[in-house]
Amino acid sequence: MAYIDPAQWSKKENYHFLTSAVTPRPIAWITSQSSQRVLNAAPFSYFNMISADPPLLSVSIGRREGELKDTARNIIETGEFVVHVIDEDNVGVANETAANLPANESEVLKVGLTEINSHRVAVPSLKESRIRLECRLKKHLTFEGQEAVTDVIIGEIVGYDVDDEILTDDNTVDTAKLKPVSRLGGKQYASLGAVFEIDRP
């Protein structure tokens, strides 16, 4: 075994190690809206659920040269956002929304996504996703590292918008029909692959 002290590594070295070691990671494809009503969309793989009661999720958004990214700034200013699940059918266009655009330009318009009204939040959702989690900001945390600052957004999910075709009779998601995609290291993604069950003791 190799022991590595993360304090001896640069931000880039830690990033490359962690994103290749902690895999697969779910991807939050987030829409947020600026105070000028510009609709932003971007994917983030430092993301997961953290609670079912209340239903909470978290997403970490690193700052760029000390400045808040559009998604973080929009969520902090408006208090609302929508998380979309990425699957095999939308992963390509979701990746396109990772482009670094000026704050007054919409990734949604640039890549030709379909904007639809959400049910409980003012931020629009994307028709291209079959699971949409409408969220309100619960808590905003900041963490300062040696080289960077990270904004951690904790959102309370106030509504689930789910395609009928993937919702089962017992109100769970048919994962095989959803065909979710996860993030690995570098440029790599992964599809669902083999599924197996293990009984809990």
UniProtKB/TrEMBL annotation:
Residues 20-176 form the Flavin reductase like domain. SUPFAM superfamilies: FMN-binding split barrel. Keywords: Flavoprotein, FMN. The keyword Flavoprotein applies. GO terms for molecular function: FMN binding; oxidoreductase activity, acting on the CH-NH group of donors, NAD or NADP as acceptor. Its cofactor is FMN. InterPro entries: Flavin_Rdtase-like_dom, Split_barrel_FMN-bd. Belongs to the flavoredoxin family. PANTHER family: FLAVIN REDUCTASE LIKE DOMAIN-CONTAINING PROTEIN, FLAVOPROTEIN OXYGENASE. This is Flavin reductase family protein. It comes from Salipaludibacillus agaradhaerens.
